[in-house]
Design a protein that fits this description.
13% strand, binds zinc ion
């Protein structure tokens, strides 16, 4: 059950003319989506032939919602299971959870919680080389099934390689109980794939960057699905979770296929990361990326109004005011965005936007009123 770590070799030295490319892709083996599927946790872990002892990593609130129940289910299926209540996804917390899991002799993990608990578990599982099952209780971004995790180190958030869950159990009955804002943010994150893929194709044309049609198509499909069904994604409606969760999971799969976050993270994500650094009160990752996508789609000369309408229909923010950030913060984030990750070539280029151009972009797309 080890070997969940993607590997890639772009080119092998060797005899001229011998094809030497190799790439590993890791996907979840079982994905269960639906009403009450948490009850299948024990059976699913049995299917994986997990050894006897596991730890449920959960949060203070999510332990009451589902974490303790998850441990009960495992026990009733004959596992020895305990719960560990973890904090935010920080470097220190990764060490703390890792040590506790190691001491407990756990041979597998179950992450029950929102994005930060899943990110923590992904990194701990990767370090200890043990498998894990992801049970999201909310879906605020597309990282649920991706091979990447965001970990905070002091004031900085870094995206790091991590294990892919061997199973994902997305119980719509649980996720609908999370604040609707989180689901809307997850949808906005997926809608932002539209500009990420355009940026990727631009980098292919200008920089001969490696491209995967499969990954790009999956990513675009996920965004299209959310845009097409935007009218059916509403608060307090379990069916909305049902509609949104699959495209959110598909985004993660696209990243596994590509072996990087490229299909789901372009200039709009650079804008979001810049805002995280600049804004006094940054907003949710998916919300910021959605607003970024409106502006970056304008720069691509594409139909930015279509993205804006879909976001508005879902109830995700489309303006700085709705994000809770100032006009000046929006402008400065736009100006800074290109410098966040220089190797990721996007529509904002190597030198980025001038302050003038940034102000105009925000105004013309209505992000700043
Ligand atoms: Zn994202």
């Amino acid at each position: 059950m080890a070997g969940q770590h993607p590997t890639s070799r772009d080119s092998l030295p060797g005899i001229d003319g011998v094809f030497g490319k190799a790439k590993g892709m890791v996907f979840p083996r079982v994905v269960l989506v639906g009403h009450g599927v948490l009850e299948d946790l024990g059976r699913t872990c049995r299917q994986f032939d997990f050894p006897n002892r596991g730890v449920v990593v959960t949060g203070p609130k999510t332990s009451e919602l589902a974490g303790n129940r998850a441990a009960d289910i495992l026990r009733s299926d004959g596992f020895e299971a305990s719960t560990f209540v973890a904090g935010e996804a920080t470097v220190a917390e990764v060490d703390r959870v890792g040590a506790a899991v190691h001491q407990a002799g756990a041979r597998f993990l179950v992450a029950v919680g929102g994005g930060s608990k899943i990110d923590l578990t992904k990194v701990v599982a990767s370090r200890l080389r043990i498998p894990f099952v992801s049970v999201p209780t909310s879906a605020a971004h597309d990282g649920i099934s991706s091979p990447r995790a965001s970990i905070r180190d002091g004031g900085n958030v870094t995206s790091t390689d991590a294990a892919v869950p061997i199973g994902v159990i997305a119980d719509t009955q649980l996720i609908v109980q999370a604040p609707y804002r989180l689901l809307a943010s997850g949808c906005a994150d997926v809608i932002s794939n539209c500009t990420a893929v355009l940026d990727w194709r631009l980098a292919v044309r200008l920089r001969s960057e490696e491209y995967s049609t499969t990954a790009a198509t999956l990513s675009e499909y996920a965004a299209q699905e959310i845009i097409d069904r935007a009218g059916a994604i509403k608060p307090n409606l379990e069916e909305s979770v049902w509609i949104a969760i699959r495209p959110i999971l598909v985004g993660g799969i696209a990243m596994s296929v590509a072996g990087s976050s490229r299909p789901c993270s372009g200039s709009e994500h650079l804008f979001s990361h810049a805002l995280d650094r600049i804004a006094q009160h940054p907003s949710l990752h998916g919300e910021q990326s959605g607003v970024g996508a409106i502006m970056m789609m304008y720069l691509h000369g594409g139909d930015w109004r279509r993205l804006k309408t879909a976001l508005q229909t879902i109830g995700a923010p489309t303006t700085g005011r709705e994000l809770g950030v100032s006009n000046d913060e929006i402008t400065r984030a736009l100006v800074m965005a290109h410098s966040i990750r220089p190797e990721r070539y996007t529509i904002i280029g190597d030198n980025g936007l001038t302050r003038d151009a940034a102000e105009r972009l925000a105004r013309v797309t209505g992000v700043v009123e």
